[in-house]
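Purpose: get a first structural picture of the assembly so the mutagenesis plan has something to point at.
Setup: four entries, given in the order below. No constraints added.
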Amino acid sequence: MQRPINVGVVGCGYWGPNLIRNLRSLPDCRVATICDVSNERLSHLTRLYPEVAAVTDFAQIARDQDIDAVAIATPVHTHFELAKQALQMGKHVIVEKPMAASAAQCRELIRIASQRRLTLMVGHTFIYSATVRAIKDIVKSGELGEIFYIGSQRLNLGLIQKDINVVWDLAPHDISIILYLLSQDPVAVNCQGKAHIRAGIEDVTNLSLDFGNGAIALVQSSWLDPNKIRRMTIVGSKRMIVYDDNEPLEKIKIYDKRVEAPPHYDTYAEFHYSYHYGDMRAPYVKQVEPLKVQCDHFLDCIRSGTVPETGGMEGLRVVEILEAASRSLQAGGGRVELDEFSTERAKLSALA
Amino acid sequence: MQRPINVGVVGCGYWGPNLIRNLRSLPDCRVATICDVSNERLSHLTRLYPEVAAVTDFAQIARDQDIDAVAIATPVHTHFELAKQALQMGKHVIVEKPMAASAAQCRELIRIASQRRLTLMVGHTFIYSATVRAIKDIVKSGELGEIFYIGSQRLNLGLIQKDINVVWDLAPHDISIILYLLSQDPVAVNCQGKAHIRAGIEDVTNLSLDFGNGAIALVQSSWLDPNKIRRMTIVGSKRMIVYDDNEPLEKIKIYDKRVEAPPHYDTYAEFHYSYHYGDMRAPYVKQVEPLKVQCDHFLDCIRSGTVPETGGMEGLRVVEILEAASRSLQAGGGRVELDEFSTERAKLSALA
Amino acid sequence: MQRPINVGVVGCGYWGPNLIRNLRSLPDCRVATICDVSNERLSHLTRLYPEVAAVTDFAQIARDQDIDAVAIATPVHTHFELAKQALQMGKHVIVEKPMAASAAQCRELIRIASQRRLTLMVGHTFIYSATVRAIKDIVKSGELGEIFYIGSQRLNLGLIQKDINVVWDLAPHDISIILYLLSQDPVAVNCQGKAHIRAGIEDVTNLSLDFGNGAIALVQSSWLDPNKIRRMTIVGSKRMIVYDDNEPLEKIKIYDKRVEAPPHYDTYAEFHYSYHYGDMRAPYVKQVEPLKVQCDHFLDCIRSGTVPETGGMEGLRVVEILEAASRSLQAGGGRVELDEFSTERAKLSALA
Amino acid sequence: MQRPINVGVVGCGYWGPNLIRNLRSLPDCRVATICDVSNERLSHLTRLYPEVAAVTDFAQIARDQDIDAVAIATPVHTHFELAKQALQMGKHVIVEKPMAASAAQCRELIRIASQRRLTLMVGHTFIYSATVRAIKDIVKSGELGEIFYIGSQRLNLGLIQKDINVVWDLAPHDISIILYLLSQDPVAVNCQGKAHIRAGIEDVTNLSLDFGNGAIALVQSSWLDPNKIRRMTIVGSKRMIVYDDNEPLEKIKIYDKRVEAPPHYDTYAEFHYSYHYGDMRAPYVKQVEPLKVQCDHFLDCIRSGTVPETGGMEGLRVVEILEAASRSLQAGGGRVELDEFSTERAKLSALA
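Result (structure tokens, whole complex):
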């Protein structure tokens, strides 16, 4: 492709400007038009980037034949309509996480993109972080042994959303990382939580993902914590990792620690666990802005027609879990099986 | 009372020696006899404290007329039988947490102690910690506003128990602190978890306590974490506390931070939350060994006949929650209401 | 002044681009021309800011009648010549720290600027940091009591300079902050250090500033430390502050701790110090980019003719201490009195 | 030796009880008598250890023929007289650090012990710490390359001494560790400091040790710091270590970081340093109480007649540096060469 890829960005609130800055910095990419309901946001951004056109009506982007691709960074409840319009007008789409407000919406977007052979990608940015990729490599290498348990905390004060609760807002990060690390889907989900600030919008939640015979993952999300915490612990049978995204340099710590049960024992006899305490190692990982890698990957997929690492199917998997979490929340935190979703997903995969 | 109180200590494994050391150091208290199934443990302790008698058969303590009180630091499944024997022989009892293996057992011990007017106390040591008491004072003062949420993590590598899972082993600390701070009982419990090292013994769990219209508490317990973590976050409508028991000095940090929703608003209109970021303060708290305060309180209660701060009823409340957690674990993590327990507890209170 | 102030920026290496970005963002200021010896650096910056002219010869800036002010961010040994030329051509000057390679050079620049009534400012950026200003307010309020001691560590791996040692490179920050906090000049200086990587260029140093009857300040500087450390401890007779610039939020911690000697005592008798341990408080300080405040202040001083907070005299004071430190280093770390400098400075002040 | 070694302990203040507890716990050792000027201290200790005799007059220990060895934990100005008496009465001696109030006193004690073939040991406890030994092994292995620099901070609030300043009180730990790690003596010393709380007793000091062509060590000591800091950084040409004794588990962190100058370059040409950033590793080190190891070593040396790892000569080396530091402090912090000391030491070694 000779001509630069022309991108329209819709949503210029918190995240949109980061997309604009990164897309603009990439060779062979041009941010042609930006769109927001707020004229104030638009004029702020056109002061910084005078070459970019600004519109308040998304239709102007959708029908602009010069625009090849659309990046969507608007509130979640608008994702489906905007992405659908863009795909129907033949544009490649990258949409912020979570992909849409329901699994059904995600499936429909996947179908349209598949029929029209367009790139559909979801902004699960952490999958493009050098740190998460380094952890994935360690997991894949078998160094950790069998993964027993992943615990994740994503806590801070605000920014409280008005249309979605804290699981839908924060947990997509944790869920996408956990699915990526385990290369496996959970079989069931539980979620408990409570709404304190705004009725009906949980601001503190506890999500657990059961991976069948394998691991369990526990994800805590909160908009009501005095400190910003982004910490994930990955416990394997041989080694354990703590991933603290707030650490400036040593984000990954690998602990050579484990508990071992004696291989064979008579239940009625005395036996002893052995505890192994070994070195800790923090591998050096060179940091690159993950959003830049993500934007670059989006352009690559458009050019080459390859499926993105965080394509529609990955976005769907995360939304399925969020939807199950909502059902569990409404049903007092009980277990919600995911088999119905996997049946639907199998049909979709067959189609693709 | 002129004569020193003579105490027998049963269980000389991990915790018993701490009880012996503290009881021995108190004026007007004498550790008369210690009991354990292991002769090795007994001889180790009599080398340190030659004046103490050592027996392997608890009956020798139970029938010793010179012994006024018994401290029980044995595995949980033995608590009920040992405490019952001691009470029936007219001895005051302090038993390690959790009080017994079921709420029914706790209720029976409470009944016996009540009939015989004996002191029955449970070793919820954290209630005697200067730090927890300082937090209680802050909560009571109203400085935090309404309590929204308490999150607690008690994680470490080992020591894996053989007769109880990690909720029964570690969460009694968190539960007793949470009940103490909130002066309120939860209405329902959820618990998810998984057993990795030993079949049927969960080593990682996620417990949530729903306090009705009020707070939610989330308690994570793990025997499989590379780091020892003892952290509790108490989020109020006005201020927030982080209590990190691993910090040598600044165990309590009070954050003048909060989120405020506008008092009245039209759901369809735009509105904004206000975020308040203020000072952090770490109050100086003079530390005393909590177990020493606990032992002293036990002796005081025996002498004065007053009800301990962590008496049978407090021990029962914790076991009720543990029992409900076990039911939830078996039922896929679903919600288990606690009303049946409160009915039973009301009858018991009427009796006392 | 109606017309925006036109600024030329010379030096587009590590720091220059930050000056350009901040100056450009200020209303009523225009970055007209940038200058560097490297065409590569210039073309990188003109890609980002197409409206800016780029030159490799400083004379083009110096003789450009439309340029009102010059910002100098070049290696230290060039500061004097560039600043002198700019001042002689009637331009206001802001020069990076340290102001020049010797106190004599600083004095000459002050004289020229004074004669021509031009603004001469030095980029001691930390004086414009909200954190340092908050500490200054605390010190001024008397809350700390008498200041006994300031200890400062500024350590990291690299960036090793080729024309100056680590005291000249890193310690200007600490020295400018210390002078600002104490509002006092030291009477003598000691400095020890060693050159490991490049002969004659000390990469690790220990600087001590004696403030006569008052405080002592100890400044450690290193290019050879595995961790980036920016920590200053300010010990007063009543309270103590730790200022850790690496902390994202709680940069200032005020400790209500002190040692008290008994007011009167007989030297031969027994006496006891009293140790006070009280609360710690981390005041909330809203952060603004200090360089932006600094650039804004430079423009204000130009417009209003007021003397900058970090004007030539402040720059000179820092260079005097650096020069004395160099002499001490060469003389085996012995004490170098600063009275000769203060005599010279008094003459200069008389002139101004 | 069949009979247990009988030890007398003199000084039952802060440190003495630790000696008593450890000596008592060792097989084949008996704490026969303890001595202090305070009857209160003595009665406190005999309550804990009823089998020990207590005296207020050291002569009773010195002339007790059943006592084989004396442990001295009294104020520094009394070390010489007590140790001398004990040695002259044929007793082995372990004396707390610093060994004595002057190098001359140390030399005399070494001479007496040598003539009478008695064990003379100094309580440089850190040399018996598993952590320091692990660092020594790393240094010896060459993993760090050439040692460039050791920086050490030993800071806290109090306990202010009345007879010695903070260098004499705290720096012996750092100095003994540095000498042990480098296996080398410094050629010169500088020391700056200030007395704030008590006239003439410096409470904050900055000590630098010049190791000739090799390393430089910078030791900061303070009784006036809000936090307890025990941190040592060891910078080598290949790797760097941070040793933080306050860390409960990861006391040693090894950084695979370094700066490299190009091997050959033309001074006038451009050249670039290369910065290597690699992994960090925290080796697991099993902790044992260092004082226990030290006491055990003292008994071993007595039994076998071998020279202690921290014998009189090691104690002397530390006191030489302290004496030089005092001279430097009095001479305005200037350089004090140590060659006079090494001449004296050579004579002494010849004698031994």
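The first strand of chain B starts at residue 5 and ends at 10.
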